[in-house]
Design a protein that fits this description.
globular, 11-stranded mixed β-sheet
Length: 451
Amino acid sequence: MLVTDSRKVKKGDTFLALRGVETDGHDYIVSAIENGASKVICEHGSYDVETVVVEDTRKYLADYLHNMYDNELADIKFVGITGTNGKTTTAYLVYQMLNKLSCPTAYIGTIGFYMVNSYKETQNTTPDLMELYEMFDLCIKNKIEVIVMEVSSHALEIGRLMGIDFDIVAFTNLTQDHLDVHGTFENYMKAKQKLFYKVKKGGKAIVNIDDEYASNFLIKGNNNITYGFNKGDYHVISSKLLMNKTVFDFNYKDVIYNAEVNLLGKYNIYNYLLALIIVNGLGYDIKEILGIKESSPPGRFEIINYQDNVIIVDYAHTPDAMENILKCCNELKRGNIITVIGCGGKRDKTKRPIMGDIATKYSSYVIFTDDNPRCEDSKEITNDIIRNLDVKNFEVINDRYEATKKAISLLNHNDMLLILGKGHENYQIIGNEKIHYSDKETVLEIIKNSN
Protein backbone atom coordinates (compact mmCIF):
# COMPACT_ATOMS: atom_id res chain seq x y z
CA MET A 1 0.00 0.00 0.00
CA LEU A 2 1.22 3.51 -0.84
CA VAL A 3 1.40 5.74 2.27
CA THR A 4 2.43 9.41 2.65
CA ASP A 5 2.25 9.66 6.46
CA SER A 6 5.12 7.82 8.17
CA ARG A 7 2.99 7.35 11.31
CA LYS A 8 0.47 5.28 9.34
CA VAL A 9 3.03 2.97 7.73
CA LYS A 10 2.54 -0.75 8.32
CA LYS A 11 4.80 -3.67 7.46
CA GLY A 12 5.20 -4.04 3.70
CA ASP A 13 3.88 -0.55 2.78
CA THR A 14 5.54 1.79 0.32
CA PHE A 15 6.35 5.21 1.77
CA LEU A 16 6.14 8.22 -0.56
CA ALA A 17 8.02 11.31 0.69
CA LEU A 18 6.12 14.54 -0.04
CA ARG A 19 7.32 18.10 0.50
CA GLY A 20 4.81 20.37 2.28
CA VAL A 21 4.65 24.00 3.42
CA GLU A 22 6.17 23.38 6.86
CA THR A 23 7.39 19.77 6.69
CA ASP A 24 9.28 17.55 4.26
CA GLY A 25 8.42 13.86 4.03
CA HIS A 26 12.08 13.10 3.34
CA ASP A 27 12.76 13.90 7.01
CA TYR A 28 10.53 10.98 8.00
CA ILE A 29 11.84 8.26 5.69
CA VAL A 30 13.91 6.59 8.42
CA SER A 31 10.86 6.62 10.72
CA ALA A 32 8.73 5.08 7.95
CA ILE A 33 11.28 2.28 7.46
CA GLU A 34 11.36 1.65 11.21
CA ASN A 35 7.56 1.32 11.08
CA GLY A 36 7.80 -1.36 8.40
CA ALA A 37 8.08 0.31 4.99
CA SER A 38 9.64 -2.10 2.51
CA LYS A 39 9.98 0.47 -0.27
CA VAL A 40 10.62 4.21 -0.45
CA ILE A 41 9.80 6.62 -3.26
CA CYS A 42 11.63 9.93 -2.86
CA GLU A 43 13.40 12.76 -4.71
CA HIS A 44 16.87 12.12 -3.29
CA GLY A 45 18.81 9.75 -1.05
CA SER A 46 19.49 6.04 -0.72
CA TYR A 47 18.10 3.78 2.01
CA ASP A 48 18.31 0.25 3.38
CA VAL A 49 15.10 -0.76 1.58
CA GLU A 50 14.20 -0.64 -2.11
CA THR A 51 14.52 3.04 -3.07
CA VAL A 52 13.00 4.67 -6.16
CA VAL A 53 14.17 8.23 -6.87
CA VAL A 54 11.83 10.38 -8.97
CA GLU A 55 12.02 14.02 -10.02
CA ASP A 56 8.79 15.11 -8.28
CA THR A 57 7.07 12.86 -5.73
CA ARG A 58 3.92 14.97 -5.74
CA LYS A 59 3.57 14.52 -9.52
CA TYR A 60 4.25 10.80 -9.07
CA LEU A 61 1.38 10.62 -6.55
CA ALA A 62 -0.93 12.69 -8.76
CA ASP A 63 -0.30 10.39 -11.74
CA TYR A 64 -0.72 7.28 -9.58
CA LEU A 65 -4.06 8.43 -8.16
CA HIS A 66 -5.29 9.82 -11.46
CA ASN A 67 -4.68 6.50 -13.21
CA MET A 68 -6.39 4.61 -10.38
CA TYR A 69 -9.54 6.77 -10.20
CA ASP A 70 -9.84 8.56 -13.52
CA ASN A 71 -12.69 6.47 -14.95
CA GLU A 72 -14.68 6.40 -11.70
CA LEU A 73 -14.43 10.18 -11.22
CA ALA A 74 -15.34 11.02 -14.80
CA ASP A 75 -19.05 11.45 -14.07
CA ILE A 76 -18.59 13.61 -10.95
CA LYS A 77 -18.71 17.39 -11.36
CA PHE A 78 -15.97 19.29 -9.52
CA VAL A 79 -16.47 22.86 -8.24
CA GLY A 80 -13.49 24.80 -6.84
CA ILE A 81 -13.85 28.10 -4.98
CA THR A 82 -10.89 30.33 -4.09
CA GLY A 83 -10.39 33.81 -2.64
CA THR A 84 -9.42 35.34 0.68
CA ASN A 85 -12.88 35.49 2.26
CA GLY A 86 -16.24 33.86 1.55
CA LYS A 87 -15.02 30.44 0.42
CA THR A 88 -16.59 28.49 3.27
CA THR A 89 -19.99 30.20 3.22
CA THR A 90 -20.24 30.01 -0.58
CA ALA A 91 -19.17 26.38 -0.82
CA TYR A 92 -21.44 25.35 2.05
CA LEU A 93 -24.39 27.14 0.40
CA VAL A 94 -23.72 25.28 -2.86
CA TYR A 95 -23.59 22.02 -0.90
CA GLN A 96 -26.95 22.81 0.76
CA MET A 97 -28.66 24.00 -2.40
CA LEU A 98 -27.69 21.01 -4.52
CA ASN A 99 -28.64 18.45 -1.91
CA LYS A 100 -32.02 20.14 -1.47
CA LEU A 101 -32.40 19.96 -5.26
CA SER A 102 -31.92 16.17 -4.97
CA CYS A 103 -28.39 16.30 -6.36
CA PRO A 104 -26.12 14.23 -4.05
CA THR A 105 -23.26 16.61 -3.24
CA ALA A 106 -20.18 16.54 -1.01
CA TYR A 107 -18.37 19.50 0.54
CA ILE A 108 -14.65 19.64 1.34
CA GLY A 109 -13.27 22.69 3.12
CA THR A 110 -12.38 24.58 6.27
CA ILE A 111 -15.20 23.18 8.39
CA GLY A 112 -14.69 19.57 7.31
CA PHE A 113 -15.85 16.91 4.85
CA TYR A 114 -19.64 16.69 4.56
CA MET A 115 -21.40 13.96 2.61
CA VAL A 116 -24.74 12.13 2.87
CA ASN A 117 -25.43 12.88 6.54
CA SER A 118 -21.81 12.13 7.47
CA TYR A 119 -19.03 14.40 8.68
CA LYS A 120 -15.27 14.18 9.03
CA GLU A 121 -12.92 16.84 10.39
CA THR A 122 -10.21 18.14 8.04
CA GLN A 123 -6.81 19.48 9.12
CA ASN A 124 -6.46 21.82 6.14
CA THR A 125 -8.89 23.88 4.07
CA THR A 126 -7.79 21.79 1.09
CA PRO A 127 -6.48 18.38 2.25
CA ASP A 128 -3.42 16.77 0.72
CA LEU A 129 -3.75 14.62 -2.39
CA MET A 130 -3.86 11.26 -0.66
CA GLU A 131 -6.50 12.40 1.84
CA LEU A 132 -8.49 14.05 -0.97
CA TYR A 133 -8.61 10.83 -2.96
CA GLU A 134 -9.70 8.90 0.12
CA MET A 135 -12.64 11.32 0.27
CA PHE A 136 -13.22 10.97 -3.47
CA ASP A 137 -13.33 7.19 -3.01
CA LEU A 138 -16.11 7.60 -0.44
CA CYS A 139 -17.92 9.95 -2.83
CA ILE A 140 -17.78 7.32 -5.56
CA LYS A 141 -19.14 4.64 -3.23
CA ASN A 142 -21.99 6.94 -2.13
CA LYS A 143 -22.89 7.93 -5.72
CA ILE A 144 -22.07 11.62 -5.21
CA GLU A 145 -22.69 13.71 -8.33
CA VAL A 146 -20.97 16.98 -7.35
CA ILE A 147 -17.96 17.73 -5.13
CA VAL A 148 -17.64 21.36 -4.06
CA MET A 149 -14.27 22.32 -2.63
CA GLU A 150 -12.66 25.31 -1.00
CA VAL A 151 -9.30 25.79 -2.68
CA SER A 152 -6.56 27.47 -0.62
CA SER A 153 -3.52 29.33 -1.88
CA HIS A 154 -1.32 26.87 0.07
CA ALA A 155 -2.84 23.92 -1.78
CA LEU A 156 -2.37 25.54 -5.17
CA GLU A 157 1.18 26.62 -4.39
CA ILE A 158 2.48 23.20 -3.35
CA GLY A 159 0.43 21.15 -5.81
CA ARG A 160 -2.15 19.48 -3.58
CA LEU A 161 -4.57 19.62 -6.52
CA MET A 162 -2.16 18.34 -9.12
CA GLY A 163 -4.05 16.24 -11.66
CA ILE A 164 -7.48 17.49 -10.57
CA ASP A 165 -9.43 19.69 -13.00
CA PHE A 166 -12.71 21.48 -12.38
CA ASP A 167 -16.03 21.91 -14.16
CA ILE A 168 -16.59 25.23 -12.40
CA VAL A 169 -14.05 27.49 -10.67
CA ALA A 170 -14.91 30.67 -8.79
CA PHE A 171 -13.11 33.70 -7.33
CA THR A 172 -14.62 35.57 -4.36
CA ASN A 173 -12.17 38.38 -3.51
CA LEU A 174 -8.55 39.08 -2.69
CA THR A 175 -7.28 40.92 0.38
CA GLN A 176 -4.21 40.56 2.59
CA ASP A 177 -3.60 37.16 4.15
CA HIS A 178 -0.98 34.40 4.33
CA LEU A 179 1.99 36.66 3.55
CA ASP A 180 3.92 34.55 6.05
CA VAL A 181 3.70 31.72 3.49
CA HIS A 182 3.81 33.55 0.16
CA GLY A 183 6.11 36.44 1.07
CA THR A 184 4.39 39.04 -1.10
CA PHE A 185 0.83 39.88 -2.05
CA GLU A 186 1.76 39.32 -5.71
CA ASN A 187 2.84 35.75 -4.95
CA TYR A 188 -0.35 35.19 -2.95
CA MET A 189 -2.44 36.36 -5.91
CA LYS A 190 -0.51 34.21 -8.39
CA ALA A 191 -1.08 31.14 -6.20
CA LYS A 192 -4.86 31.76 -6.24
CA GLN A 193 -4.74 32.38 -9.98
CA LYS A 194 -3.51 28.84 -10.63
CA LEU A 195 -7.01 27.48 -10.07
CA PHE A 196 -8.20 29.29 -13.20
CA TYR A 197 -5.82 27.26 -15.33
CA LYS A 198 -7.46 24.06 -14.08
CA VAL A 199 -10.82 24.47 -15.84
CA LYS A 200 -12.02 21.53 -17.92
CA LYS A 201 -12.84 22.11 -21.56
CA GLY A 202 -16.36 23.53 -21.64
CA GLY A 203 -16.20 24.46 -17.95
CA LYS A 204 -17.00 27.83 -16.37
CA ALA A 205 -14.90 30.43 -14.52
CA ILE A 206 -16.93 32.76 -12.27
CA VAL A 207 -15.31 36.00 -11.11
CA ASN A 208 -16.33 38.77 -8.70
CA ILE A 209 -15.99 41.73 -11.07
CA ASP A 210 -16.16 44.22 -8.19
CA ASP A 211 -12.84 43.07 -6.78
CA GLU A 212 -9.91 45.26 -7.80
CA TYR A 213 -7.90 42.19 -8.79
CA ALA A 214 -10.68 40.61 -10.88
CA SER A 215 -8.85 41.08 -14.19
CA ASN A 216 -6.13 38.69 -13.03
CA PHE A 217 -8.70 35.89 -12.88
CA LEU A 218 -10.40 36.56 -16.22
CA ILE A 219 -8.12 34.19 -18.09
CA LYS A 220 -8.25 34.32 -21.89
CA GLY A 221 -9.81 31.16 -23.29
CA ASN A 222 -11.95 30.46 -20.22
CA ASN A 223 -15.74 30.67 -20.32
CA ASN A 224 -15.76 33.69 -17.99
CA ILE A 225 -18.90 34.69 -16.05
CA THR A 226 -18.92 37.78 -13.84
CA TYR A 227 -21.01 39.01 -10.93
CA GLY A 228 -21.15 42.11 -8.76
CA PHE A 229 -23.07 45.22 -7.81
CA ASN A 230 -24.34 47.26 -10.80
CA LYS A 231 -22.18 45.37 -13.30
CA GLY A 232 -21.43 41.81 -14.34
CA ASP A 233 -23.43 39.07 -16.05
CA TYR A 234 -25.33 38.67 -12.78
CA HIS A 235 -25.55 42.03 -11.06
CA VAL A 236 -27.24 43.31 -7.92
CA ILE A 237 -29.40 46.38 -8.55
CA SER A 238 -30.78 47.00 -5.05
CA SER A 239 -30.45 45.59 -1.55
CA LYS A 240 -31.82 46.05 1.96
CA LEU A 241 -30.31 44.79 5.19
CA LEU A 242 -32.77 43.83 7.93
CA MET A 243 -32.18 42.50 11.44
CA ASN A 244 -32.92 38.90 10.54
CA LYS A 245 -32.48 38.71 6.77
CA THR A 246 -31.16 40.41 3.65
CA VAL A 247 -33.32 41.26 0.65
CA PHE A 248 -31.86 42.10 -2.75
CA ASP A 249 -32.74 42.23 -6.45
CA PHE A 250 -30.40 41.14 -9.22
CA ASN A 251 -30.48 41.20 -13.00
CA TYR A 252 -29.51 38.30 -15.26
CA LYS A 253 -30.11 38.44 -18.99
CA ASP A 254 -32.54 41.37 -18.55
CA VAL A 255 -34.71 39.48 -16.06
CA ILE A 256 -35.02 40.88 -12.51
CA TYR A 257 -35.00 38.34 -9.68
CA ASN A 258 -35.76 38.96 -6.00
CA ALA A 259 -33.78 37.13 -3.32
CA GLU A 260 -34.63 36.96 0.38
CA VAL A 261 -31.94 35.17 2.36
CA ASN A 262 -31.28 34.31 5.99
CA LEU A 263 -27.80 35.82 5.81
CA LEU A 264 -26.73 39.29 6.92
CA GLY A 265 -24.44 41.85 5.32
CA LYS A 266 -23.36 42.99 1.88
CA TYR A 267 -20.53 40.45 1.87
CA ASN A 268 -23.10 37.67 2.22
CA ILE A 269 -24.96 38.97 -0.84
CA TYR A 270 -21.76 38.26 -2.76
CA ASN A 271 -21.52 34.80 -1.17
CA TYR A 272 -25.15 33.88 -1.82
CA LEU A 273 -25.17 35.22 -5.38
CA LEU A 274 -22.01 33.29 -6.23
CA ALA A 275 -23.51 30.08 -4.82
CA LEU A 276 -26.64 30.65 -6.89
CA ILE A 277 -24.57 31.25 -10.05
CA ILE A 278 -22.63 28.02 -9.50
CA VAL A 279 -25.80 25.99 -9.03
CA ASN A 280 -27.39 27.73 -12.01
CA GLY A 281 -24.25 26.91 -14.00
CA LEU A 282 -24.80 23.24 -13.19
CA GLY A 283 -28.17 23.42 -14.92
CA TYR A 284 -30.68 24.36 -12.21
CA ASP A 285 -33.31 27.06 -12.69
CA ILE A 286 -32.79 30.36 -10.82
CA LYS A 287 -36.35 30.53 -9.50
CA GLU A 288 -36.05 26.99 -8.19
CA ILE A 289 -32.80 27.89 -6.41
CA LEU A 290 -34.35 31.02 -4.89
CA GLY A 291 -37.04 28.87 -3.30
CA ILE A 292 -34.51 27.01 -1.14
CA LYS A 293 -34.12 28.12 2.48
CA GLU A 294 -30.45 28.29 3.33
CA SER A 295 -28.47 28.60 6.56
CA SER A 296 -24.95 29.73 7.41
CA PRO A 297 -22.20 27.17 7.97
CA PRO A 298 -21.05 26.54 11.56
CA GLY A 299 -19.09 29.44 13.04
CA ARG A 300 -20.24 31.99 10.50
CA PHE A 301 -22.36 34.75 12.06
CA GLU A 302 -23.72 32.34 14.66
CA ILE A 303 -26.13 34.28 16.88
CA ILE A 304 -26.65 33.63 20.57
CA ASN A 305 -29.33 35.73 22.27
CA TYR A 306 -28.50 36.90 25.80
CA GLN A 307 -31.16 38.94 27.64
CA ASP A 308 -31.87 41.76 25.14
CA ASN A 309 -28.34 41.58 23.71
CA VAL A 310 -26.93 39.64 20.76
CA ILE A 311 -23.68 37.66 20.85
CA ILE A 312 -22.18 36.73 17.48
CA VAL A 313 -19.49 34.08 16.96
CA ASP A 314 -17.70 34.35 13.62
CA TYR A 315 -14.55 33.04 11.94
CA ALA A 316 -13.50 36.50 10.63
CA HIS A 317 -9.72 36.54 11.04
CA THR A 318 -8.50 38.77 8.22
CA PRO A 319 -8.69 42.58 8.09
CA ASP A 320 -11.25 42.53 5.27
CA ALA A 321 -13.49 39.89 6.87
CA MET A 322 -13.42 41.69 10.21
CA GLU A 323 -14.22 45.05 8.62
CA ASN A 324 -17.11 43.52 6.67
CA ILE A 325 -18.80 42.01 9.71
CA LEU A 326 -18.23 45.10 11.86
CA LYS A 327 -19.70 47.37 9.19
CA CYS A 328 -22.70 45.06 8.92
CA CYS A 329 -23.23 45.17 12.69
CA ASN A 330 -22.91 48.95 12.72
CA GLU A 331 -25.80 49.13 10.27
CA LEU A 332 -27.91 46.97 12.58
CA LYS A 333 -26.86 48.18 16.02
CA ARG A 334 -29.19 49.70 18.59
CA GLY A 335 -26.61 49.92 21.37
CA ASN A 336 -22.85 49.39 21.77
CA ILE A 337 -20.65 47.01 19.82
CA ILE A 338 -18.10 45.11 21.88
CA THR A 339 -15.51 43.01 20.07
CA VAL A 340 -13.21 40.20 21.22
CA ILE A 341 -10.45 39.51 18.70
CA GLY A 342 -6.89 38.18 18.46
CA CYS A 343 -4.32 37.18 15.85
CA GLY A 344 -2.70 33.80 15.27
CA GLY A 345 0.87 33.10 16.24
CA LYS A 346 3.46 32.22 13.59
CA ARG A 347 1.24 33.76 10.94
CA ASP A 348 1.25 36.99 8.89
CA LYS A 349 2.46 39.65 11.37
CA THR A 350 1.83 42.59 9.04
CA LYS A 351 -1.94 42.30 9.42
CA ARG A 352 -1.88 42.58 13.23
CA PRO A 353 -1.81 46.41 13.57
CA ILE A 354 -4.29 46.69 10.70
CA MET A 355 -6.76 44.49 12.57
CA GLY A 356 -6.20 46.47 15.76
CA ASP A 357 -7.05 49.67 13.94
CA ILE A 358 -10.18 48.24 12.29
CA ALA A 359 -11.46 46.70 15.54
CA THR A 360 -11.17 49.93 17.55
CA LYS A 361 -12.52 52.05 14.68
CA TYR A 362 -15.78 50.13 14.29
CA SER A 363 -16.33 48.98 17.90
CA SER A 364 -17.43 50.81 21.02
CA TYR A 365 -14.96 48.72 23.00
CA VAL A 366 -12.44 45.98 22.12
CA ILE A 367 -10.78 43.25 24.15
CA PHE A 368 -7.69 41.88 22.41
CA THR A 369 -6.91 38.30 23.31
CA ASP A 370 -5.27 35.02 22.24
CA ASP A 371 -6.16 33.17 19.04
CA ASN A 372 -3.93 30.14 18.54
CA PRO A 373 -0.67 31.76 19.71
CA ARG A 374 1.20 28.56 18.82
CA CYS A 375 4.90 28.84 19.72
CA GLU A 376 4.87 32.62 19.82
CA ASP A 377 4.61 34.69 23.03
CA SER A 378 0.93 35.74 23.19
CA LYS A 379 1.85 39.06 24.79
CA GLU A 380 4.11 39.88 21.83
CA ILE A 381 1.21 39.16 19.48
CA THR A 382 -1.18 41.50 21.30
CA ASN A 383 1.59 44.12 21.56
CA ASP A 384 1.88 43.96 17.75
CA ILE A 385 -1.88 44.50 17.45
CA ILE A 386 -2.03 47.57 19.70
CA ARG A 387 1.38 49.08 18.88
CA ASN A 388 0.10 51.91 16.68
CA LEU A 389 -3.21 52.59 18.44
CA ASP A 390 -3.74 56.12 19.77
CA VAL A 391 -7.26 55.43 21.10
CA LYS A 392 -8.34 54.20 24.52
CA ASN A 393 -11.42 52.06 23.76
CA PHE A 394 -9.64 48.75 24.31
CA GLU A 395 -7.86 46.50 26.78
CA VAL A 396 -5.80 43.32 26.56
CA ILE A 397 -6.80 40.08 28.31
CA ASN A 398 -4.68 37.29 26.84
CA ASP A 399 -6.72 34.46 28.37
CA ARG A 400 -9.52 34.04 25.82
CA TYR A 401 -11.98 32.59 28.33
CA GLU A 402 -11.47 35.52 30.70
CA ALA A 403 -11.65 37.99 27.81
CA THR A 404 -15.01 36.54 26.78
CA LYS A 405 -16.26 36.57 30.35
CA LYS A 406 -15.30 40.24 30.75
CA ALA A 407 -16.92 41.14 27.40
CA ILE A 408 -20.22 39.50 28.38
CA SER A 409 -20.18 41.37 31.69
CA LEU A 410 -19.96 44.66 29.76
CA LEU A 411 -23.23 44.01 27.88
CA ASN A 412 -25.99 46.40 28.94
CA HIS A 413 -29.14 46.82 26.82
CA ASN A 414 -29.48 46.15 23.07
CA ASP A 415 -25.71 45.69 22.75
CA MET A 416 -23.88 43.42 20.31
CA LEU A 417 -20.87 41.31 21.25
CA LEU A 418 -18.71 39.98 18.43
CA ILE A 419 -16.30 37.15 19.24
CA LEU A 420 -14.15 36.86 16.15
CA GLY A 421 -11.38 34.72 14.73
CA LYS A 422 -12.16 31.13 15.68
CA GLY A 423 -15.73 30.50 14.54
CA HIS A 424 -16.21 26.75 14.14
CA GLU A 425 -12.82 25.86 15.64
CA ASN A 426 -13.00 23.77 18.81
CA TYR A 427 -9.39 24.15 19.85
CA GLN A 428 -6.73 26.60 20.97
CA ILE A 429 -3.14 25.94 19.88
CA ILE A 430 -0.72 26.93 22.63
CA GLY A 431 2.88 25.95 21.99
CA ASN A 432 2.68 22.65 20.15
CA GLU A 433 -0.38 21.54 22.11
CA LYS A 434 -3.92 21.55 20.74
CA ILE A 435 -6.29 22.22 23.65
CA HIS A 436 -10.07 21.91 23.40
CA TYR A 437 -11.64 25.36 23.26
CA SER A 438 -14.82 26.60 21.58
CA ASP A 439 -16.05 30.20 21.56
CA LYS A 440 -19.65 29.05 21.31
CA GLU A 441 -19.32 26.57 24.18
CA THR A 442 -17.56 29.21 26.26
CA VAL A 443 -20.31 31.76 25.72
CA LEU A 444 -23.05 29.28 26.60
CA GLU A 445 -21.19 28.19 29.74
CA ILE A 446 -20.62 31.76 30.94
CA ILE A 447 -24.25 32.69 30.28
CA LYS A 448 -25.48 29.58 32.14
CA ASN A 449 -23.28 30.35 35.16
CA SER A 450 -24.36 33.99 35.24
CA ASN A 451 -28.07 33.15 35.65
